[in-house]
């Protein structure tokens, strides 16, 4: 419905400039506007009135994902799962076609001034928000972490077992291979459909509480950064959004926050701890009706 509204206002501006007619406010266009309004109602009934962004992943689901066999780094399929997820999370990649076209040469493993390893993106893919002439510096980094879930260690292991004859990053796992094999992946890029359904299928396999999509990973990244106190201008430098207003739709009030809000409000009325406000408890017997004063 947003596209329909945009076209309508575009026509209004053009026709008013050229002819002086206002197709939205002039009485001569009442019938056309009634048809437009009826169409908007129909679109709402069909659930097409507003784009519904996928919600971010719950913290419990993130934990479950990492603790499940879905992210096992000793298997070519599940190692691909983990690397894919972490690249999506840290670099906020988007689009099936863009994902399929990512190459090994687009990323580099570096060491910063403090001696810590990181993965950085050295080539930006084209997206709907950033085209050939976009010179804005953007993109995230993926730093090494302590423990068995280190994303940089997984990325390096993945690169080590990729097929050297194929330049693309996401390669199809070989059917028959062993853990001690040098090459775990075939000389064949993973298809767009497989990549596009990656998170949906992993959600089912790991038994997560909701069916997530690849866009859910992007929403999760923005939400985590927002709740961690990062300024919007820093978030969009990683997410690739064109403006700060674009990320507001991701900043939802989660269930835990709503619970704290409810507890704060109810504690004010019941006198329980957790609120600085005094309990608002009234004695009905102390409430009197206002006296009626006769007027002449």
Automatic annotation (TrEMBL):
What's a single GO MF annotation on this record?
DNA binding
Q: Ranges for the ZMYM2-like/QRICH1 C-terminal domain?
A: 63-200
Q: Which UniProt keywords apply?
A: DNA recombination, Isopeptide bond, Phosphoprotein, Ubl conjugation
Instruction: Please name the InterPro entries in this protein's record.
Output: DNA_brk_join_enz, Integrase-like_cat_sf, MAVS, ZMYM2-like_C
- Per UniProt, the ranges with Low complexity bias are 263-275
Q: Please give the superkingdom of this protein's source.
A: Eukaryota
Coiled-coil regions, chain positions: none
Tell me if Cell membrane is a UniProt keyword of this record. no
The protein here is known as Integrator complex subunit 9-like
Q: Which organism is it from?
A: Paramuricea clavata (Red gorgonian)
Lineage summary: Eukaryota, Metazoa, Cnidaria, Anthozoa, Octocorallia
């Amino acid at each position: 419905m947003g596209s329909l509204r945009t076209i309508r206002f575009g026509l209004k501006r053009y026709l008013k400039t050229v002819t002086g007619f206002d197709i939205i406010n002039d009485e001569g266009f009442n019938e056309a506007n009634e048809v437009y309004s009826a169409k908007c109602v129909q679109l709402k009934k069909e659930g097409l009135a507003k784009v519904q962004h996928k919600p971010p992943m719950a913290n419990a689901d993130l934990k479950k994902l990492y603790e499940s066999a879905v992210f096992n780094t000793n298997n070519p399929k599940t190692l691909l799962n983990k690397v894919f997820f972490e690249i999506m999370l840290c670099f906020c990649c988007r689009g099936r076609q863009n994902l399929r076209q990512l190459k090994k040469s687009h990323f580099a493993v570096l060491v910063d001034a403090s001696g810590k390893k990181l993965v950085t993106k050295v080539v930006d893919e084209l997206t709907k928000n950033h085209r050939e002439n976009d010179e804005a510096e953007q993109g995230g980094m993926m730093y090494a972490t302590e423990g068995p879930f280190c994303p940089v260690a997984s990325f390096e292991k993945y690169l080590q077992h990729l097929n050297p004859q194929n330049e693309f990053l996401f390669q199809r796992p070989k059917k028959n291979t062993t853990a001690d094999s040098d090459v775990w992946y075939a000389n064949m890029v993973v298809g767009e459909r497989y990549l596009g359904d990656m998170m949906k299928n992993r959600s089912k396999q790991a038994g997560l509480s909701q069916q997530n999509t690849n866009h859910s990973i992007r929403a999760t990244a923005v939400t985590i950064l927002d709740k961690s106190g990062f300024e919007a201008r820093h978030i969009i430098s990683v997410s690739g959004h064109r403006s700060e207003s674009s990320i507001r739709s991701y900043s939802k009030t989660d269930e835990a926050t709503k619970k704290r809000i409810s507890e704060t409000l109810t504690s004010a009325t019941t006198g329980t701890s957790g609120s600085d406000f005094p309990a608002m408890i009234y004695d009905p017997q102390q409430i009197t009706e206002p006296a009626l004063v006769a007027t002449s």
